[in-house]
Amino acid sequence: MALKKKKKLNIFQKIQRFWRETVGELRKVTWPTSAEAWKMTRLVLVVMVVMSLILGLLDLAFSKLINLLVAI
Question: How far is CA 28 from the centre of its chain?
Answer without folding.
Answer: 19
